[in-house]
Amino acid sequence: MCYYSTNQQHAEIKAAPKCKRKPLILMLFAASLLFLSQPAPTDAVIEDVLDVIHVVKEVTTGILKAWDIVQSSPLAANIEFPLMREKQRKVLQRLKEVSRQIDQTEQQHAEYVALAIDSVTSYMNQNGPVIAKMNDITDTINRISSRYEQMKSYEPHQDKLEMATLIQFAEWTVSPNAHSVQHLMDRLHLTLLGGEDKINTSSNLLYQLASNYEKFSDQICLPQQSAQQFIYSLYADIALTELKGYTMMEFSWMMLRVYGKGNYTQEAELMRQNYEKRTERTLKPLREVMRRADRIVWRCDPPKHKAAVTYDEITRLLQGYIENEVDLNTDETCRETCSFYQATRSEGCFKELFCARQPKCSGRLFDCQFVDSDMWVCPSAQNSTRRYEYVEYENGRVLGQRGQCVRGTTKVDSWWRYLFWHCSYCFCMCDEQGLKSDRFFNLRESLSDVKRNRVVTGLRFVKLNRIFHLQIQEAELLPRGAVNESTLEWRKIDSYNIFDRDVKKGVDYHTLSYESRSIDLDDIYTDDNSYVVTGVRFRVVGAHLNLEARLSELDFRTGQLIQPEVNSFWKSNDNTDVSGDDRRKKIPLSNADLPTRTITTSIPISRHNQYIDFTYTGLDKDAAQSTVPFIDIQDVTSKPPVPLSGIGIYYKGRQGYGGFLAPKIITYDFTPHVIVPTKNKF
Ligand SMILES: *[C@@H]1O[C@H](CO)[C@@H](O)[C@H](O)[C@H]1NC(C)=O
Ligand SMILES: *[C@@H]1O[C@H](CO)[C@@H](O)[C@H](O)[C@H]1NC(C)=O
Ligand SMILES: *[C@@H]1O[C@H](CO)[C@@H](O)[C@H](O)[C@H]1NC(C)=O
Ligand SMILES: *[C@@H]1O[C@H](CO)[C@@H](O)[C@H](O)[C@H]1NC(C)=O
């Protein structure tokens, strides 16, 4: 078991060594129980605040209590040495406990902080002043941290330490000179926030970072953090450093007092007020910046595209296909031009010419056109989903990329009939269903296991049995917006086959075709912070695949879904308007090359309320042999994993290339929980 609960009578705490998330809270409660030698007060309730803010409050409260050790004694310098040693031991013991709490929180955040810092350096290269400020902050953080490490190291060696060493350290820590911790903390604060109430001006570093993060996130591949998570990670780093500074100063006053160097009650009190005020002042702009920050997480392109690993394809939806006019009509005539045939079929195989030497398109043919009369065709391997590697016309035009032709080229020549009619070879698009054509989307819903309090934390596309599924990652919801990382898992896919009995087209899965091959690009989310995503599904609206998200109500403080079987609903963007002001706009895509051929990385192109059609690649670029956009199948999860307030499908790519379709996630909005904790009455 790893949970804690409160009831009206007393706080009850149970901890286990395996707790992964939030052990710090347990530690803090445990610490207060152990060390304060008083029953836990009934008002030690779980608060609506984020973990770092919570820790700051708990640690400072714990430190205050430590003053009891030193305050009970007389101030006189004539205090006996053994007693002094004993007090020193107690103070250092308490320090050890407090440090442990800080370290533990720091460890939990370390990975995410490192990610955030890395991305600052990668996207801020062009911004000199910001980089200078970041360096300044890093420098200050390092200086405070190294002094803090030094202080921690005194505890285990206290018996061998000279008294003078401790006194010297304490005096240095609180002295008012330019290298003291006091000064460093002031500097940290000023660099971070600028003057007071300058929330969106250039002097507020948090604001600058957040706005730049969004601005550059399109161009530079960033870690899997939303701008809001990124800001919070940086804040956590700074807040924990300030907490270290504060702790050092408090314990320094205590040590000085133990050794009879003075009263210091007044000094400590002043410093404490200062720290409290500063914390409150930081939270205000932090909340403001977090409120404005984007909460979207999307996956950048991988360093190298790999089929079936980072992307997958819809195959043979509409594919370039060469057919003679004589076979495009039932009368075996050649009286029209190729472009006359905009929707037809392959009706025969006149005299067993080229038509007999290639697999016939048994589906429908669309968009036929004339390119040139005579050509060499390079057929693809038997097991390929392509029909042709390339086609080279006598006039020099090449469709696709000419290379070595393994199976040997076939010469294909148009002919004249009675000098009047030219029986031309046309270039058409074949819409043929078959074993080589993967064009299915799952329509069954994917739900997180709400009975076990699981919520959706990530998404990815998966092609299984030729069907595309939107798979969900789920995890157990914990108090205050956290999820239990040891429960993270991808929920098993419903692995049916389209040929299975009682699997129905249009019910269980959707089949793309010439007429029905659009997919809506929407962000489906809620502004109501009491709901999180617990399911996804596709439905078909008109000829469009349309995304839906299931949202369920949660209790943020306890981390429980509230009767999810009752308090859940499906949300979607039902807009099918194609003409009005608020119409769904189509992303144009034609004549595109394979998205894997570009050397640049994709950037998100679509916005909410748009759609795109699956289509064939360009004639010249690929002989229209592939279907674009491709489907990005990388995991889309955030670091740290959090509940989601929404999900989306979007299109990313580059001009001239087919691009990728991919899911995105919208992280839960933590802004309302950036608040000053209520005062604890210890
Ligand atoms: C997290 O999940 C693991 C595995 O199910 C469980 O043992 C542990 O108690 C959970 N932790 C919390 C904080 O609920
Ligand atoms: C220390 O100073 C505080 C406030 O100035 C005073 O109330 C307290 O009595 C002093 N303690 C001792 C032991 O002199
Ligand atoms: C700060 O934000 C407020 C409200 O959004 C806006 O009116 C103001 O112009 C902004 N100031 C600067 C300097 O950007
Ligand atoms: C087709 O088969 C060849 C050899 O039989 C193999 O090397 C190649 O990888 C296969 N291609 C596909 C797309 O399966």
Count every helix, treating DSSP H or I runs of 4 or more residues as helices. 10
Can you count the beta strands? Answer: 35
**Uncertain parts:** 1-45
Distance between the amino and carboxyl termini? 28 Å
Q: Sheet bearing the most strands, described? A: 8 strands, mixed
Radius of gyration (Å): 33 Å
Oligomer: single chain
Give a list of the ligands: 2-acetamido-2-deoxy-beta-D-glucopyranose
- Average of per-residue pLDDT values: 85
Share of residues in strands: 15-25%
Secondary structure class reads alpha+beta
**Tally of domains:** 3
The outline comes out as elongated
Question: Helicity, in percent?
Answer: 25-40%
Structural features:
single chain; 682 residues; alpha+beta; 3 domains; 25% strand; binds 2-acetamido-2-deoxy-beta-D-glucopyranose
Please outline what is shown here.
By secondary structure, the chain is α+β, with helices and mostly antiparallel strands. It has ten helices and 35 strands.
Write structural notes for this entry.
This protein has about 675 residues and is α+β, with helices and mostly antiparallel strands. It folds into three domains: about 290 residues, no CATH class; about 110 residues, no CATH class; about 240 residues, no CATH class. Helices cover about 30% and strands about 25% of the residues. The protein contains ten helices and 35 strands. Strands 16, 21, 23, 24, 25, 26, 27 and 29 form an eight-stranded mixed beta sheet that branches. Strands 3, 4, 22, 28, 32, 34 and 35 form a seven-stranded mixed beta sheet that branches. Strands 15, 17, 18, 19, 20 and 33 form a six-stranded mixed beta sheet that branches. A hairpin with a 2-residue loop joins strand 23 and strand 24. It is elongated, with a radius of gyration of 33 Å. One 2-acetamido-2-deoxy-beta-D-glucopyranose binds next to loops. The site of one 2-acetamido-2-deoxy-beta-D-glucopyranose has 4 residues, from helix 9.
